[in-house]
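Attaching the record inline, Q. Sequence:
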Amino acid sequence: MHESLSDALRALTGESYDKKPLATLRGKVWLSYAMQLSGLGPSEFFKRHVRRGRTRSNLEKKWECGEVAPKELSVAGVEDSLHGSRWVYDLPLWDLLVDKPIGGKRLAGLVDGYTFTRQRARMWLFPGDDKRLENRNIPVALYPDTGQLVARNDLWGFIGCVLRTRLCEHDRLAIQHLEASRDMFRSLPGALKQSWLRPYASELLLVLHILRRRLPLSFVLFDVDEQLILRQADDSSHQPWRERRPWDPHLRVFAHIDDPILPAKVIPGLEVRELSMKAAARRKAHLVKKAAHQDLVGLLETSVQPRRPD
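Structure, as predicted:
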């Protein structure tokens, strides 16, 4: 099982993993979805589905601001009152986003639950996919490919990319982890099209950056254009599925979309040394030129001084 630098530091200092930030994010996202499902404002929602005849408490405000995460019992109580509200709280995403090692058995179980094999071909299959595949609303995605998960442009495609990233981390597949973590960010706009998730984009991006740094190669070899991700999330015409984009008959290509992934440039050591020597030579030449300029100014000031009368 792979351990990151943060895992090693926690083991060294005896400090435990802080569950609160992710737990509160999970609670806020669940609450956002439940209120949207109910169609009620915050006051009426809490009155009808949380208090249910009980005395008003400060718990409601603490949930909304993320000071306190909802407990399992509270989520179950809301589900009893508002059927269909719980599934967001139970998403595997929350377990996958934790900044600590995940067991191979747990990851393998999730993969088995979200894939199926037909004629020796293994494919991704998420809840509700049967009808969507039949209607060609989503592309067929062969496991372990994550490119077609990005093309789904939805929440489950994003979850699949996160799952694949964590699996590559567990198996220490650095190159595969690099590609999967890139697709994790590319698939995020599709997930953020859910209006109940969109307000928490910044918090989610922070968690994803923490995850990708668990393997140093993925942390240093690319950066992310976060503003582009947010623009794509808010753009109803954003279409990562290449075959669904407009066709240019002149260039004979599908329309291009911008990539939020900004690859790093790797420079060989000899080239770095050469660049460093050139920079040092430029600095030296600049100092020589500056000194010569100061000498010239001093000479001119001396030559133009007025003569004192005898």
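Residues 18-95 form one domain. Strands lie at 115-118, 121-124, 222-224, 247-248, 253-254, 261-263.

More tomorrow.
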